[in-house]
Amino acid sequence: MSTPQEIHHAPLQNRIIQLDILRGFALLGIFVVNIEIMNCVFMNQDAFSQQWTSSLDRLMVRIQQLFFYGKFFPIFSLLFGIGISIQWMSLKRKGISIAFFYRRMGALFLFGVAHILFLWSGDVIHIYALMGLGTLLFVQWTPKQLLILALIVFLFPFYGLLFEWIVSGIGYQAERYLEAYTSESIVTTIREGTYFEGMQLRIQEYKSNVNVLLVSLMPIAFTMFILGLTIGKKGWLHDIPTWICRIKKPILWMAVLSNLYRLFFLFFLWETDIWSAPIWRSIFIYAMHLCDTLMALFMVWLVAYGYQYSFWKKLLSPLQYAGRMALTNYLLQSLIGLFIFSSLGLGWYQTLSPSQTMGLAIMVFTAQVFFSKIWLHFFKYGPLEWVWRCISYGKVLAIKKS
Fold it and tell me: Where do transmembrane segments lie in this chain (predicted)?
């Protein structure tokens, strides 16, 4: 039997299928959320959603609130942090220069910028690139130090105030970037405008959502990155079934308590008098973000736990193909969304109901799973994964399977 030290330092010899499955699982969840935003920008969401009153659509909205919103971005961030830990240990073992990481994160940042300009304003991978570089500052820390850092970042409650202080100091006014657009002009631009007009709208929409990125997404992303780095450094990836069983009781308690609050928040809190008080409302919303992230960790555990049983293993295994091509599939989802909703294709912007977008997301993702399996039958990597890998290593690598 290996000692803990041997487990910690032993290299991972093969791909970890559970991680690929979780990436595929996260891709599905992210697309279910993203397609809603592609169908209607944040600015128009409230007015647009009021028209869908059928029982099916209201059920879909509740399902999205309970199981999708705020859950899959943390999962993807956790997996990215785990990936950094695996790469870091591999580079140390092979003696590869730290320049590998700078090239890798730099290329990912450019992918993200291109995503915003050419496809969709809701990109997150440029944030991953920046957070990935930030994570490098802590790769030498012990797992205990990393866990303490993750808790501090996760529980710090004043990101909104910090953002307001920073933007007031530099004079940044996010709300003014969409002043030139009305709800009607946004619909017209996306459905009937030129590609260049759509690009201009995407840029302005991105600028207007900077507060969401800095206040809501970046802290969660960084927390999950650090937690993923901690998992890698502790060697849990070498014996996933063991640590899955060890944390079973605390993770179940965490799921029960966080979901009790989430149910209270979604179904009862909005009707109470205390919700109208701004200070309490901010506290309740902050607590909801924390509980959504805890729910995301429970979902990671649940998928890993289910994989130990033959039925769930068979059901979950196809997700690995989409997960192995996560970058390609993530950007492909935006390309498909651009075709479905804009003047470049079907022009269905603000025409689909919540049940229709949910069904469409599942159909598109299912097609991506089949496409990824066929592609990986002939090639070692997805097309964008290959480009990213070549840039990271600074040389052209073989892509075809021998």
Answer: 21-44, 66-86, 107-131, 146-167, 210-231, 251-271, 283-307, 327-348, 360-379
